[in-house]
Amino acid sequence: MNLATAFEELHQGLKYLVGTVAAEKMQALQRILDDSLKAYQSGEAICGAHLLQDFEELAFDTN
Asked: Where are the domains of the chain?
């Protein structure tokens, strides 16, 4: 599995949150995933990882 495929899988998983989160939150989750992928692709692995942590906190309300 390559990076793009892995992030596509993460995007596909968002379907399980439809109907359980507000539209604004869903848009934020999608944006964070997109930004994280872009960071990884541009060689900014630490930024990409931090964005994935932000995604996890928002998706699963972990604080």
From this structure: 3-60
